[in-house]
Write a structure and sequence with these properties.
256 residues, alpha/beta, Rossmann fold, three-stranded antiparallel β-sheet, 5 helices, 22% helix, globular, 6-phosphogluconolactonase
Amino acid sequence: MSPPHPPILFSFASPDDLSAALADFILKAQREAIEKRGKFLVALSGGSLPKTLTALIGKQGVKWDKWQVYYADERIVPLDHPDSNHKLALDTLYSKVPIPSDNIHTIDLALENDLEELADAYEKELITQFAQKDSARFPVFDLVLLGTGPDGHTASLFPGHALLSEEDRWVAYIEDSPKPPPRRVTFTYPVLNHAVRVAFVATGEGKKDILPAILDTPEQGLPAARVRPVHPGQLYWFVDEPAAAQLAYPKTPFKL
């Protein structure tokens, strides 16, 4: 098997420039996915990421009816709670575009008192979408959009946590997140690393210290550095200049 491709780093002068480029990048991924299988399978995380997707609002060529959206991680809180990744994406994006509500796949909070069952139920949603688990070793998303925290975590995969070594489950739960709220579900590395494309978005001075630890010295093994899609998948980083201020990693001019 060929080794993973090295990450491709795009740096932009402003968050608006980044958002516009990311929208064009997503549109290209959407076109290729729809041509291949008639739908666009996307996974999102929370944090500041949904705000960078606002350039998609009103953009020509977005086929919202073909999108199937899942959450790379979600907090175990009501879907209308301020900590909910779904609420953030709903307020920022979904409520402003014509995406069918049935195309947005949320966790089943009726199972919130049994996180193992809740994680299994979300995994079954993936199995339904990506064929039976025994015929699809892992799901292959067309695009996974991620962020990273100042500690290098991504999705709800935190430094030093046992979930970093999970190799079989598609969706796992966490009850001891070092960042509140403590109870969450998250995609595992086998899911993240089988995507066609993974794109990290990191903006602002608050990310300038952690990005070198992820991109310049990935051998440190921070959670975000362990996202390396298997060949032929590709990893991209969309960053702004303040976030990239201390990076030695080579930048690539953005083009589609």
